[in-house]
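Let us work through a complete example step by step.
Step 1: write down the sequence.
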Amino acid sequence: MGGLPKKAQQLLDLREKKTGVLALDSGALLFKEEKIPPEQVLQLTATAQGIVSAYNKMSFAAVGVARQDLAAGLPFLLSLQQKSAFPWLSANLVSRTQGKPYFKPHTLLNMAGMNIAVVGLTSNHGPDALLTEKDNAVILPWEEVLPREIALLKGRADLLILLSSFPAAINKRIAEKYPEIHLILQGGNIPGNLPPKQINNTLITQVEQQGKFVGILDVRWNTQAKKWEDPGPENLLLEKKNELDRLDWQIGRYRKQGEPRLVFKDQLEVLAAYEAMLGQRERLEQELVSLTAAQNAKNLGQARLSSFSNRFEVMRKELPDNPAVLAIVQATTSEVNRLGKLAAKDRAVNSLAQNKAIFPDNYTGSAACQSCHTQQFKKWLTTRHALAYGTLEGKGQQFNAQCLPCHVTGAFGQSGEVVLNLANDLRQVGCETCHGPSRQHALRPQSGKPSQPTRETCLRCHTGDHDNNFIFPEAFARLGCGGS
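Step 2: predict the structure and record it as tokens.
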């Protein structure tokens, strides 16, 4: 939830500058996975309720129902719908016996002098166990419901938007078959941001889920033609400008400490990364000159149809927080921590094994590294990694199972019960967070070599909304153990 106050403030700032700002979410909003570990149900559903309260404050126009949103069960989402100031949309999640949708199939909006229709589709690609027999529900194939929705909305909408949690290949097929759909916002399937791609008369785009980014699509829509311009240099030009902005920000991080060639003269890997960025920047500037010339020529020779510009903005720590949504997030995280504390207390009373320290499979703890790697262990003790669990304690969040994985060792992929009851020697970001479980290495040093950390290892936690200053080569050079 950490990025929600920043997202809320950004929406508020946009609405102060522009009219016709439409906030939509394609789903996978409430939960990361389709199945919730039983011991985390109370914490995760409390978080889901907090997310809905925040979205109410942010005046979202609609949210699509993705499979992940059903992780706590259809009854929970239906009850949450009653507390939502926005409609949840799904045209194909229907009663098995009556065939009636459980959620609104579409919503009609009037904004900036246009009639806008938004339709929701829930993916039926996944485990059958998502819906139980008690739910009396089925997710119909899109082929059965989408033609009916399009026919129903014909002549009533200037712009038709689809919120889809179907896989990208299915959304492509939809775009190829139905040019009446002008925009598909997909979510809940593939990770990362997907810049708008035009297929037929449809743009398909996606924003990284769980609030790490905000996608801003600025549409200039011709309500008479209802067609996008042919893809040309304009979209690539914008993409390259965004790439240059990100690159300049990264280069600026290197230069904050002084002239990089002097500051990092003894850190060859960091210096090489910096020089590569400078070369990349020079190539980008040359490309921008060519693309700008091509776009100017195109504008002179073609009457403008509908067009767009797009950017993805990471929710960085230095962005301002919206006070109202920040209060919701703080209240929610406090409640989640309270529930985690109660759960840990109950397990301490009821579990005979509770007094035994929990080490996940193949983890041994950082203390086991000390005897052979004395200097590296001493260096690690001086880092913030060694104090990571203490920062949670300072904020009263040490029982929050959603925060813990980035503040302890061995938590990724573990159950909430394990995460909340790790041995003290794992309650920090220890050696095995970077090098992987090392029990075999401790037993047989020559045969069980630990792994080396990669950029992906660090980015599990060092995301923009938590650490927008993170540069992997620099961090690796600064924290690298070295030696044996």
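Step 3: interpret the result. The first strand starts at residue 24 and ends at 25.
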